[in-house]
Amino acid sequence: MTDDRPDAGERAVLVHIHFPAGKMEEDLEELKELAISAGAKIVHIVTGARKTPESRYFVGSGKAEEIRDVVTAAQAELIILNHNLTPAQERNLERLIKCRVVDRTGLILDIFAKRARSFEGKLQVELAVLKHLSTRLIRGWTHLERQQGGIGLRGPGETQLETDRRLIRNRIKIITARLAKIREQRNQGRRSRRRAVIPTVALVGYTNAGKSTLFNRLTGSSVYVANQLFATLDPTLRRMNCVGFGPIIFADTVGFIRHLPHHLVEAFHATLEEVSEADLLLHVVDAHDEQKNTHIDQVKQVLESIHAEEVPTLLVYNKIDLDTAFSPHTDNNLDGDPARVFISAYYDRGIDQLLEAVSELLGKHFSEQEIILTPLQTKLRAALYERDSVLSEKIDDAGCYHLRVRLPRDEIKRLLNHG
C-alpha cells in the first residue's frame, strides 16, 4: 500500500473467477473500475469458473499456472484478484508466480489509502490497513521490503516478525484511542444539532452514484467530484434552509460497494454513525446503471451492518439525463408518501421535487403549532430560539408571546411540560 507508484501505473493482470450465484460472486466490470481507480494499467484479464475455492491457490493449480504464464508473457508487475484470499493462498500464489498478489480487500484498502484527505480519514484507513496486514505477516519478507511509504516493516527473521507484530498492535491501540476521541467530538456535535432540533439528512448509495454532485447541488458546496470509485471518503456536513421546512443538515458520506471489507466498516464506524443517526436517508441510485437493483440490495446490506436499516429512506434515482426513458418526477407509496424521486443532479433537474419530498417526509416526524407563552416564560422562549425551532413570533397587548414553532412531536410535549 503506497502512493509511490510510477506515473504510468503498475502493469496488472486481473483474475476473476465465476462462482454460482451467491456470496462468492463478484462483478468483473467493477474489478476493472477498482483497478483503474487504484492506478493500475490492465494488461490482461484471466477468467475461470469454479464451484468452490481451491484451498491452496484459491483458483486451482491449473489456473494458477495459466496466470503465471500470462504474467510472464505480459511482463506484469501485479496480480489483482476479484476475491478475498487467505494469507496462505496469497503467499502460495506469490511463491508460484513470483509476482505480487493483491486480493479484493487489499485493492479497496489501497484506493482508500490514496483518497483519504482528512486526519480522521487517514487514521481510519491506516487502522483498516494495519488490521488487514496483521494477518499477513507470515508472508515472505522480500515482499515487505519492497514496500515504500507504508508502515516501515523491514527485515527477515522471527525476531523481526515478532517486533513488527508488537509495533502493529501498539499502533492499532494508538489509532483506536485517537479515533475514539474524534468519535466523542463528533457525538458532541451531533448532540448540539439535536439540541438545536435541526434534522440531519444523509446521502448514501453505491459508489459513483452521484452523491457528491447532488450534495453540491443541494448545498452550494464544492465537494470533490470525480467519475471514479470512492471519490469521497471523508464525511462533509453542510447546513441549508429548505423551503417549506426550515434548516436541515445534509451529510455526504463514503460510497458503499458489494462485500465492503469488514475492516473498513469497522474502521469507518465513526463516519458511518452520521448515517445511522440521521433523521432521513437519501439513497442515491444511478438510474442508468444496468445493475442498479443489485446495487440497491448491496447498500441495504451495508445499512443493516451499521444498524441503519430502520432510518426512513427516500430513493433518489440520479443521472436520468443519460436515459431518455426517465423524466423528473416523484413516485409515492401506498400511504401517499414520497418513495422515489427521479432527478439529474448534474443538470439541476428534479431538485425542487426532491426538496419537496424531503420536506414532506421530515414533516411526518415534526409538529408545527402555535403556542402562547406568558412574560414569565422567557426561559422557555429562549430555549425554543436556542433550538432554532421558532418560525414566527408575535407579542399581544398583554405581553404574551405567540410563537409558531416546529419541533419533533415528543420534543414539543417535553418542552411544554418543562416550561
Q: What is this structure's SSE topology?
A:
Blueprint: E1 11-18, H1 28-37, E2 41-49, H2 61-74, E3 78-81, H3 87-97, E4 100-102, H4 104-115, H5 119-134, H6 141-145, H7 158-195, E5 200-205, H8 211-219, E6 236-242, E7 246-252, H9 262-267, H10 269-276, E8 280-286, H11 292-305, E9 313-318, E10 329-332, E11 338-342, H12 351-363, E12 366-373, H13 378-386, E13 390-395, E14 401-408, H14 409-418
Parallel strand pairs: 1-2, 1-3, 3-4, 5-7, 5-8, 8-9, 9-11
Antiparallel strand pairs: 6-7, 10-11, 12-14, 13-14
Order of helices and strands: EHEHEHEHHHHEHEEHHEHEEEHEHEEH
Query: Structural class from helices and strands?
Result: alpha/beta
- Total DSSP helices: 14
β-strand amount: 15-25%
Q: What is the makeup of the main sheet?
A: 7 strands, mixed
Distance between the termini: 58 Å
Runs in which pLDDT lies below 50 for 5 or more consecutive residues are 1-7, 139-158
Shape summary = elongated
CATH class of the largest domain: Alpha Beta
Give a count of the beta strands, DSSP E runs of length 2 or more: 14
